[in-house]
Structures are given as C-alpha cells and as structure tokens.
What does this fold into?
Amino acid sequence: MNLTLLPETMSVLKLNASQPIPKWALENRNFVSITYTKEELSIVCEQSQVQSDDNNLQTSDDWKCIKVEGPLDFSLTGIISSLTLPLAEAKISIFAISTYDTDYFLVKSDTLKQAIKILSEQGHVFN
It folds into this structure.
C-alpha cells in the first residue's frame, strides 16, 4: 500500500452525545473526523485547533495520522489488517478511521518512527 504521513499532530476528543459540534472543530478543513453515537460525540482534529475549557471534554493528544492512498474499492479486503497486524504485534496502538474513499490510522507520536519502520519492512511505501 502507498501511505502518506499527514504533517499535523492530532487530538482525539470525546464529548457528551448531547453537546453540539464545537465551532472550532469545523474551522480547519485539513482533517476533521466527527462521529456521533448514542453514547458520545467523537472528534479527531489537529491538536492546535482544539479550543475548549469544557470539563466534559476528554482529550488524547499527540497522535500522528497515516493516510492509505486511495480511492479504495469497497470490494477490497484486509487493507486495515495488513497495516495494523504488524503494529499490534509490536505493541503499537492505533486509532482507525475510514472514509468513503480510503482509510486513515493514527499512532501516538512517540511510536511513529517504529511504526514507519515496521510498515516499510512489510512492503508499504511512504510517499
């Protein structure tokens, strides 16, 4: 797979499901993922974008995002597992996001170099 490391450092945020999407979450269009469920509102965005003193906000910072170059056909199988299995074996945690065209996964900044090395050794190419 061809992969691209996005330059931004990301945050993964959790808010109460009853809360509206914060305006600051919609201001930057480089990368924002917003998911509502019955239990929560999750936002993944650039760490520098987060502007909240909300006590109900849970934050995990210092993530780096790797994009699988697409578009990917829905009939393809095993894409995420071919990327995440070697990382799991190395005890590297990931946070995965899929869009219509492709997949993204985040790794903590302190594991990025190791993740790139492992994925490169598996034949994945970083652009």
